[in-house]
Amino acid sequence: MNRRVRRKVARKSKGNVVQSSFPEVLDEILHLEPQGVVDWNCLPDDTVIQLFSCLSYRDRASLSSTCKTWRSLGSSPCLWTSLDLRSHKFDACMASSLAPRCVHLQKLRFRGAESADAIIHLRAKNLRELSGDYCRKLTDATLSVIVARHDSLESLQLGPDSCERISSDAIRAIAHCCPNLNKLRLSGIRDVNADAINALAKHCPKLFDIGFIDCLNVDEAALGNVLSVRFLSVAGTSSMKWSVVSHLWHKLPNLIGLDVSRTDIGPSAVFRMLSLSQNLRVLIALNCSILEEDTSFSANKYKNKLLVSLRTDIFKGLASLFFGNTKKGKNMFLDWRTSKNNDKDLNEIIPWLEWMLSHTLLSSAESPQQGLDNFWVEQGGALLLSLMQSSQEDVQERAATGLATFVVIDDENASIDCGRAEAVMRDGGIRLLLGLAKSWREGLQSEAAKAIANLSVNANVAKAVAEEGGIEILAGLARSMNKLVAEEAAGGLWNLSVGEEHKGAIAEAGGIQALVDLIFKWSSSGDGVLERAAGALANLAADDKCSTEVALAGGVHALVMLARNCKFEGVQEQAARALANLAAHGDSNSNNAAVGQEAGALEALVQLTHSPHDGVRQEAAGALWNLSFDDRNREAIAASGGVQALVALAQACANASPGLQERAAGALWGLSVSETNRYLEEFIKCHDPLDILRAVGDFAVWILFECWHLIEIDTISCEMEMLIQLLLREERIELTNLFRK
Amino acid sequence: MQKTEGEESKAENEEVKQVTLMTSDGVKMKVEISIVYEMEIVRSFIEVNDADHSVPFPLPNVSSHTLDLIIELVKNEYDDEFMKTFSHDELKEVLVAANYLNMKTLLDFIATAIANLLEKKSVEFIRNFFNIVNDFTPEEEAEIRKTNEWVFQDLDED
């Protein structure tokens, strides 16, 4: 071994500190290495491990691959207590290769039923916390095997998607296998029956946190038997018998938090819980329409009990709960964590409250309802910002997703609610989101980037994002190996690149190269990421300087590849638009010729004019128009059947958008400006010229101007003569000019 | 362990709250005590020994240039913009020094900064950055690629 990382010296014991005026120390000083050269053999283990801990799994793998010492440091148990596999393909083979490093694994996040099947191969016997999403296909059998192999499990969370195939049988298995279970939150189970709940009550004495969220049926009466429960959520669960609930649950001796959001609970059940339950301190009932309709209901009289509903002042309520009514800002969760409070209940209530609030706020943002406008502007947005600073990563993620979602009015037209977006900005949301985006955790990166992207549709927010250094951060994320992260980052750059003032900054941050690179990286699999990257490049290519950079970065090849091979219309449209913009700079750069010379480019664009999608046809015609300014391109377009295609397009789009019509006609005109005119000659001979002239509208006169000598005078009908006269009058061109040509 | 006795200069302690540090290149630097207090290695010595602050405290692993950078960083309350002016070598020197001096906040700050530089970099870049010699056999390299395979596999589309 030719190098060794030194262990940190035991300098924490005070006696060992280096003293002054020791001859041997001075001696050491004299023998130090020459100035400026640092001996990296001296970098202590814990500092190297600290570097590892600041980086993503991919970067950790790179660090581990440098040398033997760093490899062994990369396997340190402290780096492997928690693992988030959500963005990785995870199968039995992968799990087996990870197993030696997972002996001390305590916390695992996974995504999807296939990953769930592989979990047991990790042989992580000490696993305490397991959390999975996208578990629609997860079966009772898989879940039962997982809990049987991990009997130390303390926390199990599956959601927010419905666990459609999980039944009460699996819940019974959980109860029998995991005696230490203290937290169980499951989403979307069809039927949670009395047997299952009673098994939990019997075998899991430490179970204090239960969530049966968005379920279809839950046995209310049996839940009344789980005496250990302190926090209970049945948010979004249907067919609850509230009369049973209100007669039984207030007797739960330890219940301090109850979440009944998004249910049909009414005032009387809420009243009974608040007035009769001994220890209840928080009742969350957000989005409960029956409760909200009863305007006479007020929760003010229940001292020391907080009702969180759409009609209450949530911040004031939380302040009274956390700080006994001392006035605080809107950042209560953070304030609470930084304050030195020793209320044991509250230390448990707050993480639970954050989790449940983030859950309900996100689902409310995802299915917008009438009448929530005031709530979002006055409280919802600020709550999401506050939750983004939670110490729980999944709460932060959901809050960021919530922010990304609640500002959107219309997905299709990318329109957002400016009032909401600017409110987020005013409350410091941009800085918070950029902070999350800088985390090494990819789940946070992608959700934060998505929120930044959506908010940046608003020009004022985009400006703030740029000012806070957001462009650099997004350009960095666009280089991510994680497709979801790269996709959201490219979306952010797309929206930011609308602003003229941001284009140069994106180029400067290396954004153009990153966007081009990610087209190659996901050229075959990733419509979303490709559309966003091409869209951003299209906006950037509209700028003179940036268009040169796009070409230098290999953008022409990338975009032509998309125009040729990609089957997804959104990608085709953006790629064609990008090529059109690249070719729009005339003589100021050589892009026009470069696009034409790229193999298959012109054929691909001609092909795209046949697309059933208006947007694709319009951008393809636009690209051909711009490209037709170059002599060689004109020939090549005509050789690829461009003239016929454009005539057909011009004729077919008489009722289409003016943009499409203009571009089709413009492209035809572009082709007609030729020294030989031989392309148009061909089609003028085989079509009725009148049809063409009608189809190309205002461009007719210009095409006529170019092709006049090709039209034989005796074939001109009366109708056509009138049209020509009309055109000429409008354009104030003397008929004699035409004939002279 | 021998204690430093410096009776003749004790009077100076009262008026100037500074500690003299001697760097590896033999430069004596007077540093404000508030900054010195962030250096656990010096602080623990001063607190225990009630030492004479005018006798230079030797820092055989920290050069005067690095100490200058550290003092500026602390004075600027760990300013990102200032840190961005550092060369790679300077960053690495500050990291080693922060670790040696046991400066928790500085260590976190500089480790994050260096981690940012290493983000998405190749193994070769990292080896060059830290002057690490590749001591793997080709077989071991193949094995490592296999153990790290999981991070380079993306999730399939649903």
From the 3D structure, determine the CATH topology of the domain at 7-110 in chain B.
Potassium Channel Kv1.1, Chain A
Q: In whole angstroms, how far apart are the ends of chain A? A: 86 Å
Count of DSSP strands of chain B = 3
* Regions with little confidence, pLDDT below 50 for 5+ residues of chain A: 1-37
Structural class of chain A: alpha/beta
What kind of sheet is the major sheet of chain A? 10 strands, parallel
- The level of helicity of chain B is 40-55%
User: What is the H level of CATH, i.e. the homologous superfamily of the domain at 7-110 in chain B?
Assistant: Potassium Channel Kv1.1, Chain A
Q: Give the strand line-up of the largest sheet of chain A.
A: 1-2-3-4-5-7-9-10-11-12
Q: What is the ordering of alpha helices and beta strands of chain B?
A: HEEHHEHHHHHH
Largest sheet of chain B: 3 strands, mixed
What is the percent of helical residues of chain A? 55-70%
Count of beta strands of chain A: 14
**Spatial shape of chain A:** elongated
Oligomer: heterodimer
Beta-strand level of the residues of chain A, as a percent range? 5-15%
